């Protein structure tokens, strides 16, 4: 058995499956709380788990004519009233079935970035949306 390659994945974007070239930021970490009482005979603190943190997720896709969905989504975000969407990112096997899935809940855009333009380049024009979210769940099949 071999590990899965990273190039075969799909993203469900609030109920719609969209094509992306890259997804990053699928991380969860816990703060560390250090504590030491004044009468402790040890000259070191103890460590306890604190609040969990979820990194923002960055999604990149090729720019298509008449496709401005990232900017429109960001433009709809008003103070304390972002339009939230659940995002599901699935790593697929050879049969195109999800093997590992990351589910980001209540995501909303915090940044939209256009491509770096270069008159001598021959790369595809990509745009990036960075989304904040309220939790990441990781599931395996």
Q: Count of helical segments?
A: 1
Structural class of the secondary structure composition? mainly beta
In whole angstroms, the N-to-C terminal distance is: 16 Å
Contiguous uncertain segments of 5+ residues: none
CATH class assignment: Mainly Beta
Tell me how many strands there are.
10
Q: What percent of residues are in strands?
A: over 45%
Give a written overview of the molecule.
The chain is mainly beta and 141 residues long. The chain has 1 helix and 10 strands. Strands 1, 2, 3, 6, 7, 8, 9 and 10 form an 8-stranded antiparallel beta sheet that branches. A two-stranded antiparallel ribbon has the order 4-5. The longest helix has 7 residues, at 69-75. The model has no long low-confidence stretch (mean pLDDT 92).
Show the helix and strand layout:
Elements: E1 9-13, E2 16-18, E3 22-24, E4 28-35, E5 46-54, E6 57-62, H1 69-75, E7 85-92, E8 98-113, E9 126-132, E10 136-140
Antiparallel strand pairs: 1-2, 1-7, 3-6, 4-5, 6-9, 7-8, 8-9, 8-10
């Amino acid at each position: 058995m071999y590990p899965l390659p990273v190039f075969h994945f799909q993203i469900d974007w609030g109920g719609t499956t969209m094509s992306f070239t890259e997804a990053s930021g699928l991380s969860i970490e816990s703060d560390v709380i250090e504590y030491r009482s004044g009468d402790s005979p040890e000259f070191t603190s103890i460590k306890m788990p604190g609040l969990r943190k979820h990194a923002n997720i960055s999604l990149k896709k090729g720019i298509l004519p008449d496709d401005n969905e990232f900017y429109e989504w960001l433009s709809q975000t008003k103070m304390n009233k972002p339009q939230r969407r659940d995002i599901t990112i699935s790593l697929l096997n050879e049969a195109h079935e999800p093997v590992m899935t990351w589910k980001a809940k209540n995501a909303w855009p915090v940044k939209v970035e256009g491509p770096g333009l270069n008159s001598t380049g021959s790369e595809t024009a990509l745009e990036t949306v960075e989304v904040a979210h309220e939790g990441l769940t990781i599931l395996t099949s």
